[in-house]
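Thread title: Can someone regenerate the structure for this chain?

I was given the following input by a collaborator and told the matching structure tokens would be attached. They weren't. Posting the sequence so someone can regenerate them.
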Amino acid sequence: MNVITRKRLVQRKQRIGRRLRKIQWPDQARPMLAARNIRYEVAERARGVACGGIGAMHLVALRTGLVEAIDRRLVLLKRHLPYHESDHVLNIAYNILAGGTCLEDLERLRTDEAYLDGLGAQRIPDPTTAGDFCRRFAEADIEALMDAVNEVRLGVWRGQPPAFFGQAVIDAGGVGLNLQNASVVVNMDQPWNPAVLEQRIGCVHRLGQHRPVRVVHFISKGTIEEGMLGLLAFKRSLFTGVLDDGQDEVFLGGTRLKRFMDSVEKAATSVPQPMPPAPEAAEAVRAMDEPQAEPAAAQTARAHGQEPSVREPREPTQGPASPDRMWTDIVTAGVSFLEKLGQALAAAGTAPQDAAGLASAPSALLTQDAKTGRPCLQLPLPDPETLRRISDVLAALAKGR
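Best answer:
Regenerated them for you:
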């Protein structure tokens, strides 16, 4: 920058300072935005562009060797008619720097003569050509492009003087650098992951470090970064307690997590304890557990060599049974009758057979009809009262049918 240009910039800064100085303004009769002295002229030589620093960015890419590294590592085009791989990559990157959000915004830039002159280009790829170039990328090509960028980045760091590394480290350029002379770490932004923060500090606080390491955090009061300090402290203590076999306490601080844990503890302590059983209930349970004393009648019967009778507990009286329950009882009684009958026949079947091939069962059960000669089952009838009840049941069944 020559002397004349520097003098002009100083004068402009002074004029802005005089305009923005504090003044006790009286009541103004007209609005401040007057715009009465504006004239638009088409200049022959001087031109302006909204993204004025685009030319300086391209000079940085040239001087750091980024353009050459991209063309050497990334091979996607067999012939360059007329663009190289670096032209396509930087064209998309400059579109973002110029405020573009999609490839279609390249059409606006390629028709801006001042933009083309700022890059020293006769023309730049249109959106269709840029899209075709992006579709050529494979996984290996993406890694080649990343290697080219990382190669240039490391070269930039190696070219810095020793005094630069002794001042501060800001994210270490995003790569794992072994900084030999640094002793100050400056964190301009707080990450969500505390491991990233420890990685930044670890680039300086490393094995072989002989000087005290100073870590500086730039935090604006009342912003989200101030709230992130408590969250980072909570995550760090949680990692220490769970992963590193540290203390069994987790630091919560005054954050919402602390209030949440307090509410959980309050709810847990408010649960009532189980009430102890009443004395009467405890005595009843103890009496059920202890063996019962044998009645005197049972002891007398056992002394005479007789087995004491056991009285079954009476079931509580129930109300009228439902029809389903009644049929269940009938089926159960029928099954019991058939089982008893089968046992009686089985006992009779063990006797030797006669000449007719029939088992010589007791005459009270099996007989032979004198008229037909067929065997018959003869069962003794119960008392008249039971017969009357059976006849009533059969009559009710016949009437219901």
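The CA atoms of residues 178 and 203 lie 6 Å apart.
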